[in-house]
Every structure is written in structure tokens, then in C-alpha cells.
Amino acid sequence: MEYLIHIAVLVCLYGILGLSLNLVVGExxxxxxxxxxxxxxxxxxxxxxxxGLGMNFFLAMALGIIASGLVALLISGVISRLRGxxxxxxxxxxxxxxxxxxxxxxxxxxxxLGIPSIPRPGIWGLDLYQNLQFLFLAAASLAIVYFISxxxxxxxxxxxLNSIREDEEATQIFGYATSYYKLAIFTIGAMLAALAGAxxxxxxxxxxxxxxxxxxxxxIFSTIVLGGLGSSRGAVLGPLLLVxxxxxxxxxxxxxxxxxxxxxxxxxxxxxLLMLYRPKGIWGTFRI
Amino acid sequence: xxxxxxQKLVKSFGGVHAVDHVDLAFHGGxxxxxxxxxxSGKTTFINTVTGILPMDGGEIHVGGVVMRRMNPADVAAYGxxxxxxxARLIQQISVLDNILVVLTERNVWGALFERHTALHLEKAxxxxxxxxxxxxxxxxxxxxxxxxxxxxxxxRAVSMRANIYLFDEPFAGxxxxxxxxxxxxLRTLRDKAASVVLVEHNMNLVxxxxxxxYVLDGGKVIAEGxxxxxxxxxxxxxxxxxx
Lengths: 288, 243
Description:
A: mainly alpha; two-stranded antiparallel sheet; B: alpha/beta; Rossmann fold; ABC transporter domain-containing protein (chain B); ATP binding (chain B)
């Protein structure tokens, strides 16, 4: 039971990451693989404030979200001018920079040693030491992010994002300053990713740079491609399926020395088959 | 007084002047045709005026403002809208959303908290009914036929309620019934005092619709006047048929 709760928490965290990245990739067409960087900023800022200053969890989380948003705002001022593959390469650079800072700014982040003993959050004097209690927090956060995602999607803003996704130049002709829209959604996406980071740090109670590599960004990207780009439901379904696929391999009976490789092999095959036979993903509304 | 004009407008690609010091003027309540053989600079002129291509020299005068640089996102603010030679629709959203996107809030924060209203729907419905696409409103634009795509793009441009409409070959490859629908729209815009700029190869349509005509060749204006007048000019006949 404890293991299932653990998986459910992971699904919630990746669901938040999927929903937030879907706003950037699925709704706006900005192919970003920087998400683990913003996820990491949320995790590190929250962890440092909790461990170093003993700050209230929600305040620390809010500051983590704001920090991630500010970084995204500053950076997207530059990279929102880029299009297509140039934007993609810009975000690869971003994730590498963020990861390098987590790894090398040792006086703050402790580098590869990571930050241990991060306290679990407390709500109204109740500490969420039990995973089941934490699951409620994670699920509530997922529900809030899902609501935000649907709210954006159904707004006029969401329609403009879709228009930018398909033809940015034509969207400009309609009178839209598209760089502001891209800047806004990139920042919103980064802030929501930081929320997942804050939850991750306090759930695992230990973070190090290995959780925020470019591979993690690619995994998050894969979840939304599987679930279907441009779909909020898909952005939750994709993480659910991939987390279960990964965890399911623990019980496939492979020898422990090859189990991890087999898991990656299955993940790779799943992506290739998906692109061949269902490029829109399961519930996707948008084909790259 | 023209509501849109250019003075010595230049657009070059390497050493080639696609638009070569061109002075054109477009008046309200008129349909002005831009004609000329392929590669004469008609589409480049429209792309330059709307900021899709940066201008290399000259001026654009619109609404009393003189510009030496045009940003595509500012074009609508000057009351200009356009269609493209190959219809550029928002493919993977519905026909209705393709119209709604030009009817709603431009400001980022305003758009974030805005839902389209019954008024937006009514306006979108009216124009879609006019072009015969109301029944297709929930289909993705990518599923429309060629003619329907052209109609939707024109409907979207008309929904902008601009003062100046730049139509780049709106009739190309269309059936006579569709041509008639689009012709009616152009005449209606003219009657509402808008300036309609029509890039067109079909000279019968130019004669039928245009009040004034510019002929371009090699990026330069080689003739101007009423359609009947310019199409008889020897330099125009030579440009189309050769010496």
C-alpha cells in the first residue's frame, strides 16, 4: 500500500510538470526542454529556505515559485525571440546552465552532496510525515494546476497561444505582440514547474543535481507527447502511464543488473511506436 | 488624400530590387488593383507594407503617420489587415476559433481573463454565414477544402474591421460561385469606405472590380490609371507578352 501511495505521489508530481510543460509546448508550440531546470529552482529554493532558515513551507514554496518565475521572465526576454529549433537549443542551454549551477555552486547547493534532511511540510500544525497525508497535498496541488491549465486553455489568451503555435507571423498581423504572450506562458509554466519542485524536495526530503538533468526534461517532454499535446487530460494521463511503465518493470522479473536498461529500452520503443502510429499522442489535439 | 501610401519604397534581395523606389497611393472607398507578371513585386510590396519583410528604404504613410520601419504586430493598430497568397489559417483549431481569435482582447492580461461572449459569437456567426462556413464552424481549419480555406481567411480579415484590406490573389483557383461571394465582400468593403488593395492576375475580375490599377514590372510601376486604360498601354502588353 505504501508503495502504491508513493507511485500516486509521483504521478501527481509528474502530472503537475506535464500540465505546466503542456502550456508551453502543447498550447504554444514552444519546444522546450528546460523544464527540469525550473523544477530544480523550485526544489532548491524551497529546500534551502526550509533547511537554512526554518521558514514556513508555504512561504518557502511561494518564494521558490517566484524565483523560478523571475528566472524564466529574465531568460525568456531573450529566448522568446527565437523560433523552432533555435528555441529548442536555447532551452537545452538553459537546462544545462541550471544543472551546472546546482552542481557547482557548492557553497549554497552543496553540489553533488545535495541537500539532506528537508522537512516535510506542515499544514495547520499537522506535519505531513505520512505519505498518505502528503498524497492529499500533492493531489490538491495537481487539481489546482489542472484548473489553472483549463482556465488558460479556455481563455482568449489560450486561443492566441494556439494561434502562435501554428503561425506566429500571421498572429502578429492580427495585432498581437506575440513575444509578450510567449514570455507570459513560459513564465507561468516555469512557476508551475517550481511548485512540483517544492513538493518533490519536501516529499523525498533530499535533493541533488541528478534529479534536474536534461534527461529529466526529456522524460517530462515524453510524458506529454504520450498523453497528447494540447490536452490537459493528456498531460496527466501521459505521466500516469509512463510512471506505471517504469515502476511496472520492477516486477517484470529481469535480473537486477539489466532491469534499468530494459526499462529504458521499453521507454525508447514506446516513444518510437508512438511517433509512428499516433503522433498526436493519446488525447492530443496538436501534431508537432 | 490617400489613407495608405508609399514613397520611394525599396525592398531588395541581395542585388535584386524586388520593390524599386515605388510610390503608390490607396484611397478609402476604392478598390485598387496591383497587377503585373509573376515576379513583378506585388506580393513583396504587400509583405513589406505589412512588416513581414523589413523595408530597405523609403517611407510608408498611413493615417498621417510616416514610417520607415513597420512591425507586423503594429499593422493592425494602423487599421491594416491582409490575406496571404497561400491561405495561412490556424490549422489545428476550429473554423469558429479562427474568427474568434481576431475578435477578442489583444492585451496579454486582458486576454487571460477574457472568455468569448455572446457578442463575439454573434459577430463570428454572421461572417461565417456570409461566406457559407457556419456549418463547418466546429471543424478544424486543416480539414477545409482549398476554396473554403480561402473563404475563411477572407472572413477572418473582414472580421478585423480594418480601414485598409490587402488581398493577395484571393480568387486564385476558385469556382465562379466562390468568386462571386468574395467579389460581393470586396464591394461591400468599398461601400463602407474602406480601401481595398487587390493583387490579381485575372484581368476580367480587375476590370469588373477595380476603380484604379497599378501595373508593376521588375519592382517598378510601369503604368497606372483605370483598368481599361492601363491594360491597353503598350508597356503593359509588353510586360505580359514580351516584345
